[in-house]
Amino acid sequence: MRRSDVIKPGMKFHRLTVLHKTDWLYVAPRGEARHKWVCMCDCGNRREVHGSGLLSGQTKSCGCWNDEILRLRSLSQISYSRLYRIWAAMWERCRNKKGRAWHRYGGRGIAVCDEWKQFAGFRRDMGAAYKPGLSLDRIDVNGGYAQSNCRWADVRTQANNKKNTPIVTFCGKTQALAYWADELDMDRDLLYRRLVKRGWSVERTMTEAPSASCIRPKAMRGHQRLGQIGSE
Prior knowledge:
Strand content: 15-25%
Number of domains: 3
């Protein structure tokens, strides 16, 4: 009995479910006439495949499996490259005395832990949690770069975790000024001007209604540049 004779309708091979044989024959490499098998892929496509491909595991899908593998490999390469650039930039900030950011990092004692002095250690500790669009953020802005003090954060989280971001306590709750702006549905720059530039009290800053000329459409507030006070 030929190996292909063990294939029956309804059997599943990886992503392919066997429906039936083709009505036509083809000539195999050894000269014998054989049928192909019509299969339904998990993605919804139909494909005619050789029985030997199903039994050997070489044919896994209608083609979508290979497409996904290529896509994942591409994403992996992109993520690896981006991760390496983040690691290199971290090192640059902390050890290059001629770098533009030295005075805000290495110059004020921000150091890289021993485990992260090699890229392999950094990738081991932080690589699995990385997603495109995130950047490396230190939880304690006065602490160094180490797994216990670092996380992946979006732009907003980064902006509200800078050493000179106003942290305001109001009604028993403490949070960054930008979060108060969202919670009170007020413009962050207005609150900053009141509190920092004009020297208003916290209560007056948070409770006094803005004048009509200071009110900005709500749709515009999400586009305000965060962290205008300065960057770490």
